[in-house]
Amino acid sequence: MANAGQIVAALRDIGSTKDLSPDEVHDLLKDGILAGLMRIHGPNVEAEISIDEQTGEFDIVVLRRVVDEVEDPSSEISLEKARWDDPTFEVGDIMEIPVDFTQFGRNAVMAMKQRIVQRVREGERQRIRDEFEDRVGELLSGEVQQTERGKMVVMLNLARDADAIIPWKEQNPRERFRQGDPIRAVLKKVDETPKGPRIILSRADPLFVSALFKLEVPEIYQGIVEIKRIAREVGGRTKIAVSSRDESIDPVGACVGLKGSRVQAVVSELGGERIDIVPWHPETEVFARRALAPARVSRVVSNPERQVVTAIVDEDQLSLAIGRNGQNVRLASQLIGWQIDLYGSREWLEKGPEFSLFGDRDEDQYETADFPLAELELAEATLAALNGAGYNTFLDIIDLERQDFLRIEGLTEEDADRLLGLIDQLTVVEGESDSSDGDDDDSDDDGEGEAATGSDETDDAADDEEPEDSED
């Protein structure tokens, strides 16, 4: 049985390479031997296989049931043949037939090899699934093996046999890697393919930035500082919003590090991509003001129903708030999850009569607020005439002239004058007479005055620590 001992020794070497336990090696060998016996005796063969752990040798015994008439030769034997070996056999007995491994022919050995290789591959695939399917979002490291058709094939340090790739769309277009270069990426998902699980990595996903900060900032790893939101345009800029569970720890300062050491480590891994770190806030208006950093925002008003935020900035801050090709305001909008309408102070003042219907109220929207005509102090006959003509809300009549009202059946000249007076009263802009000269300096002063009406919000912004920028 020297050959059998060599087979067991070889399987043990494979087991050590594939990180298999002795029991798993024995199961592989038994399954392989059974596959070889199926090739010799048939698909339904039953056998007892024992392996000596000391010598590595194994014994094989084929089991066959004694029957009057054989229907399945692979698992049954006739009573007549069974009594050739032992006359005491009766129908229903189990006959044990010892098999020497030397009886295995070429076909049986090949079947045994194929079964073992198949089992080893299935075991590897299952281990990869078990190891990586619950690790989405984690940072993995490896080495670039090759680049084919735009995708990078990576050999992971943790599982060198795993099929891991970085598709083209998950790469940073500003980066170039060559064969043999070390690389880090975030695990995005595990795909199932006909050849087994495939690990999809990414350096373009926002999760990659989050994973790098978790690596560089101990407070994030410990759960003290949390990344609440993240918005990224790969290769250009990233905005992250952070909060702290410990009031004594500044979340922005923790992410920036001493002299910017922590954020610079992340920026270096991202190939110089700019990073804005802002403190998260549960109130959308405050959060939007911070998200537009490094620009200073004069006033912010939100419309929860439409999920729109209107932000007004001074003229010297407008280009900074917009960013290159609109990148800053676009990322800020993604960060807060609402649309941001951005206006300069001069443009906003020019839109004042149209946009500032209830400008003195904190809950104002910078769009004209609509409401039913029934809320106005109108006579029932006037209200009925307007409703009969299809005018039901204030915005329905806001642009009508005197002659338009007179065309409505049931309205008198006094009713028309009354309605025009109400429209003028509700759409008057405070300070309109002061800015009538159209002077640019006066417009700037009015803009500052309007910003002062939101003094609470302005003070909040002044108190907020200015977010760090990786290139500053």
From TrEMBL:
Monomer. Binds directly to the core enzyme of the DNA-dependent RNA polymerase and to nascent RNA. Belongs to the NusA family. The gene is nusA. Residues 137-204 form the S1 motif domain. The keyword Secreted does not apply. Keywords: Cytoplasm, RNA-binding, Transcription, Transcription antitermination, Transcription regulation, Transcription termination. Participates in both transcription termination and antitermination. InterPro entries: DNA_repair_Rad51/TF_NusA_a-hlx (IPR010995), KH_dom-like_a/b (IPR015946), KH_NusA_2nd (IPR058582), KH_sf_prok-type (IPR009019), NA-bd_OB-fold (IPR012340), NusA_N_sf (IPR036555), S1_domain (IPR003029), TF_NusA (IPR010213). Residues 431-449, 456-472 have a biased composition (Acidic residues). The keyword Transcription applies. Residues 428-472 are annotated as: Disordered. This is Transcription termination/antitermination protein NusA. It comes from Gaopeijia maritima. Pfam families: KH_NusA_1st, KH_NusA_2nd, NusA_N, S1. It is found in: Cytoplasm. Gene3D superfamilies: 3.30.300.20, Nucleic acid-binding proteins (2.40.50.140), NusA, N-terminal domain (3.30.1480.10).
